[in-house]
Write a structure and sequence with these properties.
single chain, alpha+beta, Alpha-Beta Plaits, 2 domains, six-stranded mixed β-sheet, 8 strands, elongated, disordered C terminus
């Protein structure tokens, strides 16, 4: 009877944990993600403490800890949910924060050892051995979490090919695989520090599989009934492994909802009107930088007249490939018109957009000419939110004006916003 009661209590803990954190995640547009991250951080200490101290018995001889079964499993599934609704660049923030904080805790605990202590009352002495043990477990657990998150995001994306939009199956399968790896890795550290036996390894794994099934069901329901497609969030980027994990599924979803240009593979103009406008509005509303690059192929009409439209189509394909190759994974590339392309670079300031535009210009100018003996170049006009404008139409108008300035300046040129010590426009030309 006590074992059944423990199962029900663990399920109740999981429901309470998910409901509370999902509510914070749902409210992120109103109160920001800081509240969600802080709650995860507080739970991280409790989860490690329980995983090292408190274990309960379940039916069939299973022994597990609420710390690993409920709190750690829940944390990993919540981070996957955060990735699905935001991106990998956001997910890395709490992981890096936890890792840094735990290492700092470990370092400060070492310094505390050096103090000469004064007992407050009889029988109340600091237990430094316990503090050291918890610090080591927290650092070890967070290091494992780093790899857990990378693996679970990659698996979730990979399973899209096989399972499509069956979210519960994708969540459950990738959660089961990653938590199996995590259980072995964390138990190894726990065994070395506390002497935990094999029954903890096996019982914890069985309990985690049940928790994954429950969390996956709640996450699937949350995504279906309480979330909606949101514009991407971005910040000043740090180049790391998470960059490679970002935006692929979101990009595929956008292609499925709107469409891409059949010739070049870039997103089409309808997508630009739908996503681009929403991205600018969202960036302006939350104070996040965003840049729009308007790219035009120089003398393209003359190119078509001389070499024919078949050669022109090949040039368009090559240029679209060069643009998408030079841009970041998170930048969306659109074919706006016959020889014009637009890049929406969310989270990118004007100065960074100038560098991005120059990188695109150089890549196209340096690419092989192909069958046609003609050096293909582009001119680029750049406008940034909110320094130049806060609305999509005005932002596009400014980028278009700067594109014409680039043409007038001799083509094969990038013109963007001025820097703090620069003239009214910036000319970048080789």
């Amino acid at each position: 009877m006590a074992e059944i009661n423990n199962v029900l209590l663990l399920a109740g803990d999981a429901v309470l944990y998910f409901t509370a954190l999902a509510a914070l995640l749902r409210a992120r547009r109103r109160i920001g993600l800081g509240a969600f991250f802080c709650a995860l951080g507080v739970m991280h200490f409790l989860e490690t403490y329980l995983a090292g101290i408190l274990y309960v018995a379940l039916p069939f001889g299973i022994v597990t800890s609420p710390g690993s079964t409920v709190l750690f499993t829940g944390k990993l599934m919540m981070l996957l949910l955060l990735y699905i609704r935001e991106d990998a660049l956001v997910v890395r923030q709490p992981i890096y924060g936890l890792l840094f904080g735990n290492v700092l805790l470990f370092a400060l605990a070492f310094v505390m050892h050096q103090h000469t202590l004064v007992p407050l009352t009889a029988g109340r002495a600091a237990d430094f051995s316990f503090l050291d043990e918890m610090g080591a477990l927290m650092v070890w657990g967070t290091a494992i979490l780093f790899f857990d998150c990378i693996i679970i995001i990659l698996l979730y994306e990979r399973l899209r090919t096989w399972l499509g939009n069956y979210r519960w199956a994708r969540l459950a399968l990738c959660g089961a695989v990653v938590l199996s790896f995590d259980q072995v890795a964390f138990w190894t550290g726990l065994h070395m520090l506390t002497g935990a036996g094999v029954q903890v390894l096996i019982g914890g794994w069985i309990a985690k599989m049940g928790a994954v099934a429950l969390y996956s069901g709640m996450a699937a329901l949350y995504l279906k009934y309480f979330e909606w497609p949101l514009a991407r969030r971005d910040t000043r980027r740090i180049s790391d492994v998470f960059d490679m994990l970002t935006y692929r599924e979101r990009y595929d979803d956008l292609l499925a909802r709107t469409g891409c240009d059949a010739l070049t593979g870039a997103l089409d103009r309808h997508s630009l009107e739908s996503y681009g406008r929403r991205a600018v509005e969202t960036a302006a509303a939350v104070g996040r930088p965003l840049s729009l690059l308007l790219i035009d192929i120089d003398h393209f009409k003359a190119f078509n007249d001389r070499f024919g439209h078949a050669a022109g189509d090949k040039a368009l394909k090559r240029i679209a490939t060069e643009i998408m190759g030079a841009a970041r994974l998170s930048d969306f590339t659109y074919r706006f018109g016959g020889e014009e392309f637009v890049v929406i670079a969310d989270g990118v300031t004007g100065t960074e957009a100038n560098a991005l535009g120059e990188r695109i210009r150089r890549a196209i100018a340096a690419a092989p000419a192909g069958d046609a003996e003609w050096k293909v170049t582009v001119s680029i006009g750049i406008a940034s939110c909110a320094k130049d404008a806060s609305g999509y139409d005005r932002l596009f108008e400014i980028a278009d004006k700067r594109l014409y300035q680039a043409k007038a300046a001799g083509r094969n040129t990038v013109i963007g916003e001025r820097g703090p010590n620069e003239p009214s426009v910036r000319l970048v030309k080789s």
